[in-house]
Amino acid sequence: MGARREDRLAQLAEELGEHAVFQRADVSNETDMNALAGLALSSFGKIDALFANAGIMPGGNLSEQKIDDWKRMVDCNINGVLHAIAAVLPQFLRQKSGHIIVTSSAAGLRSVPGNAVYCGTKHFVRALLDSFRMEAVNEGSGIKTTTIYPGAVQTELLNSVAPSETKTMVEAFYREAALDPNVIADAVLYALSQPPQVDVSDLVIRSIKEA
User: Fold this and answer.
1) Is 118 among the residues known to form the active site?
2) Ramachandran area for residue 60 (φ above 0: left; ψ -120 to 50: alpha; else beta)
3) Does pTM top 0.90 for this prediction?
4) Is 149 helix (H, G, I), strand (E, B) or coil?
5) For the segment 156-178, what is each residue's pLDDT rounded down to a tens digit?
6) What's the rounded Cα separation, in Å, for the pair 71 and 53?
7) Do residues 84 and 27 make contact, with C-beta atoms less than 8 angstroms apart?
8) pLDDT at 79 over 80
9) Catalytic residue among 118, 149, 174, 190, which?
């Protein structure tokens, strides 16, 4: 396990028990991702799957020109995915197996105003994994890919959004309709638990209250 907040990782590792290892890592840092993959290899001897779940959503219309926010989203939502995949791909190719699971978003399937850059990063994830899936088939690498498209989920994602009337409205909707994160965890387990010849490529998961 890797994330920026080491205290959270330590708490989770304690809950999971002796088979969990962790390391502080920032997905936007290529060196961190390589070190995390190295930890997995040294601890377990192989890597079976990658779940790349980091993401931020500062939001805002393009006319606001929040360029620093754009860069942060690209670093986390795009470069972070690329760094994570690059860290495990050599091992997956050597062993001719592996499963890459990445969280996109319902915003990766449509476009919405006020979130153009975020939508763009999530559309990137969709295109990246779909293209790589076809490459894996053509190359016979045995690597599976799964893209998960969550709607509203009870996470800290909205913490990265600056206060605004829109944020207040979204927060109200999340309080009413957002899904428990365990729903997404169950989806990951479903994708991972399929037989070797089955690749669950895309999973869209949202509340029945979300259009």
Assistant:
1) yes
2) left
3) yes
4) strand
5) 887 877 677 767 777 888 888 89
6) 18
7) yes
8) yes
9) 118
